[in-house]
Write a structure and sequence with these properties.
The structure is a single chain. This protein has 191 residues and is mainly alpha-helical. Helices cover 66% and strands 0% of the residues. The longest helix has 17 residues. The protein is globular. It starts with a helix and ends in a 26-residue tail after the last helix.
C-alpha cells in the first residue's frame, strides 16, 4: 500500500501480484482486485476484467466473490453485449446475494441502454422497495422510473449507440490515492 500511496503504480502492481501468489484466499482475492483497479485506471479494461474474474474465483466467500464479479461486470458494461452483461449479473441478483441491489441496478441500467424500458422499469421498481438498497440507489431508481414514465427514455438507446461510436477522449489522470484532479477552469485568452 505504501507503493500505491507513493504513486509507484508498476511496483505496487507487482507487490499485489506477490501477495496474490502467496496469500490465503481472502488476501489473494483482495490483492487481485487491487491489481484489477490499477489496470482499469490505466485503461487496460480487458486485463482488469481478467483479474477481477480471478479474484472472484479465488474468494473464500460470497462477499468478496460477488464484489469482484460485480466490478468485472461494471468494467465491461459499455463494451459487452447485453447478453454477456446479463449472464454475469444473473447470479448476483439472486435473493440473499450480498450485492443484490447493486447488481440489479446494473441490470436495470443495462436494460435501459438497450431499449428494454419495461424490464428496466420493473427492475427499478424492485430496487425502490428493496430493504437492502441504499437511499441513493432508491433515488436513482425513482429518477430512472420517472424518465421512463415521461417517455424521455425512448431515445436513450440511440444516445448510447452514438456515444459508443464517438471518438474516445483522454481519460482524466487518477492519482495513487484514487482521486481525479479537479477540472481546471477554461480561459478564453481574453481579459
Amino acid at each position: 500500500l505504501d507503493l500505491l500511496q507513493a504513486g509507484d503504480l508498476p511496483k505496487a502492481f507487482d507487490a499485489f501480484g506477490a501477495v496474490a501468489r502467496s496469500a490465503p484466499p481472502g488476501y489473494k482475492s483482495l490483492a487481485l482486485m487491487q491489481q484489477a483497479s490499477l489496470r482499469l485506471a490505466a485503461g487496460k479494461s480487458q486485463e482488469a476484467v481478467a483479474l477481477y474474474d480471478a479474484a472472484s474465483k479465488a474468494a473464500p466467500g460470497p462477499m468478496l466473490q460477488d464484489a469482484a464479479a460485480l466490478k468485472a461486470t461494471l468494467a465491461v458494461m459499455d463494451t459487452a453485449s447485453f447478453k454477456d452483461v446479463e449472464a454475469r449479473l444473473k447470479p448476483l441478483v439472486l435473493e440473499g446475494r450480498p450485492y443484490r441491489a447493486e447488481a440489479l441496478e446494473a441490470m436495470a441500467f443495462a436494460r435501459l441502454a438497450t431499449g428494454d424500458l419495461k424490464g428496466a422499469r420493473s427492475d427499478f421498481a424492485v430496487i425502490a422497495l428493496m430493504p437492502g438498497a441504499s437511499d441513493t440507489a432508491r433515488a436513482r431508481a425513482a429518477a430512472a422510473r420517472a424518465l421512463i414514465d415521461s417517455g424521455s427514455a425512448k431515445e436513450l438507446p440511440a444516445v448510447v449507440k452514438a456515444a459508443a461510436a464517438a471518438p474516445a477522449q483522454a481519460s482524466p489522470t487518477v492519482s495513487a490515492a484514487g482521486q481525479t484532479p479537479a477540472p481546471q477552469p477554461q480561459t478564453s485568452g481574453t481579459p
